[in-house]
Amino acid sequence: MTDTRTVAVTLGERSYDILIGSQLLEQAGEEISRRFPGSKIAIVTDTNLADLHLPTLEQSLARAGVTSTSIIVAAGEVSKSFVSLQTVVDQLLTAKLERGDFCIALGGGVIGDLTGFAAAITRRGMGFIQMPTSLLAQVDSSVGGKTGINSHHGKNLVGAFYQPSLVLADIDTLDTLSQREFCAGYAEMVKYGLINQPDFFEWLEGNWKQVFAGGAARVQAIARACRSKAQVVARDEREAGERALLNLGHTFGHALEAATGYDNTRLVHGEGVAIGMVLAYEFSHRLGLCNDNSATRLVAHLQAVGLPTSLAQIPGGVGDIEGLMHHIAQDKKVNRGTLTFILVHGLGQALIARDIAAGDVRSFLIDKLGQIKS
Amino acid sequence: MTDTRTVAVTLGERSYDILIGSQLLEQAGEEISRRFPGSKIAIVTDTNLADLHLPTLEQSLARAGVTSTSIIVAAGEVSKSFVSLQTVVDQLLTAKLERGDFCIALGGGVIGDLTGFAAAITRRGMGFIQMPTSLLAQVDSSVGGKTGINSHHGKNLVGAFYQPSLVLADIDTLDTLSQREFCAGYAEMVKYGLINQPDFFEWLEGNWKQVFAGGAARVQAIARACRSKAQVVARDEREAGERALLNLGHTFGHALEAATGYDNTRLVHGEGVAIGMVLAYEFSHRLGLCNDNSATRLVAHLQAVGLPTSLAQIPGGVGDIEGLMHHIAQDKKVNRGTLTFILVHGLGQALIARDIAAGDVRSFLIDKLGQIKS
Questions:
Q1: How sure is the predictor about B355, in pLDDT bands with cuts at 50, 70 and 90?
Q2: Would residue A152 show up in a list of annotated catalytic residues for this protein?
Q3: Which among A53, A80, A146, A224 is annotated as catalytic?
Q4: Which residue in A29, B48, B274, B347 is a FRET match for A47, CA 20 to 30 A apart?
């Protein structure tokens, strides 16, 4: 068993702790009853995780004398919908939970986003605890307070900024992930190095095998990623400026996810981000913002861990240029019709580039699509 | 035409102005284009108000060169639902409104609550302007940022604290209200006097006829009410403490509304609040918190303007004590199972009374129900 690390997220009266370590599911009851005495709990999870982890958490809460009820939704992106939102809210009210009580999101990004949003709007805001069970959720979606559901117009277009009161990231849950899921989460971890921490990127280049193996290196890497994100969020909670840097690789990545119909057999989010980050580096090079050595090193590292790095690796392709440009224009980072991209001057040197000409994006992507066929 | 008054609501970076005056619908385009240049607008209104006021507002926006689209929902409480919320959000996204664009809520409390909530969750928060057209909305629901919809578990159980960027309260729109609707809004105005401003209550006792007649006294009274509410909200935006005082008369009032099935032919919200405030004064007297002179003066004033003051005046009755106690327990001001009531030491001297014994409430209401039958 490895030591538990604590990362403090500093947001005034909305500050909270992220605990990263082993056996946190087993310790959750004790931790929660100590921090929030007298509160009732509703655990929200999905059908898959209900089998894997729910009994452990329920028993831990019961041992600590915490009253809990469990709400189980369908596994997968389908649950980020108005229908599931209404179902969860209704069950929270049926369970007579009050403002001072807590929802626990036990699951990956989908469960965290759905549960956080439900907590944000039930009685105009009740307590919320994240227990992320995927690497993606542990290093990204469980930190920072973005919650929400999808619309048929696009992903995450409906939601709230709503901070949890506590995050418990149990690294043991990652042992149940497939290699592909772990890799996808790893892409978001690499992102923090690429944004503003070249030393972390270099550390990952040298230590990724230990991170994949588990134990102390994994805890260290997750804590470093959470701290990176927490610092950015603390300075810009509602994405008025700097926080947009966290979208590195995401405008391209979201477009690729949309172009593949959000079909997880073809492309998962982290893979879209991996390819999207490579595209951001290549596009930055094309615009004369950085040299090509950065893109080369990035591609080499992502390939080493087993992540895709080019459009050609997406089964079934990504459609034509009109489709991609449509998805890019629908991305929520559009502001008054101009395109905003997160670009780079090099490894660990990301920047927010506003007023990027759509024509430049188009011709870059046309060339990339051409490379698939050739 | 009377002078326009401005009330500033001080909430840090969420501060905003409330403008109260004549012909503000006609001036809206100019005001909005000056304050928020380049923003697109979606007007949300209901089928009744679309006939009365929408053309005036649309023309005003068009004259000022502001692009707008209109979203029309069914009139009445039925629109404070998940279905209407999803419809409005979807239409905002279809209209390609972005974070920096604005929804205008053109209507009474229902439209304001629904539109504000839709603005709060669309793209995790877009701009929002209130244009309240009822007295109730002008003095209460358009100020303070409470937005939301109903659940079958109760009213306003789903929502967000979300502040508008501007409130334009055009008193001319009040000329289209029925006497009954105007009276209902007046009850909320009286409430501010009862909470902490005995001089305002006394002013209303002497000047209510001028307020009902319109013109400068009406603007003055609305501005005073808005300022009262704004001060409380500025000190306690998210109802951690003092803001609960604004619920004077509302725990009883909500229970009466629920007991009459939210049937507006029997009881409208402001009438429930009027009777609820009288009950709060009588209950306070019974608990030895205040003398009976306060309740007598309150009843006299409410009767003078034509508001109901007792359970006996509710057509069809309010059911039995079990039903009323159930509705009171479901009220969202319940905290960990104890009952919280807003009670009074006298006119203009309200207090938050926590840990009120349910038995005391029950026996008080049993006596009140007995008075109907006798």
A1: confident
A2: no
A3: A146
A4: A29
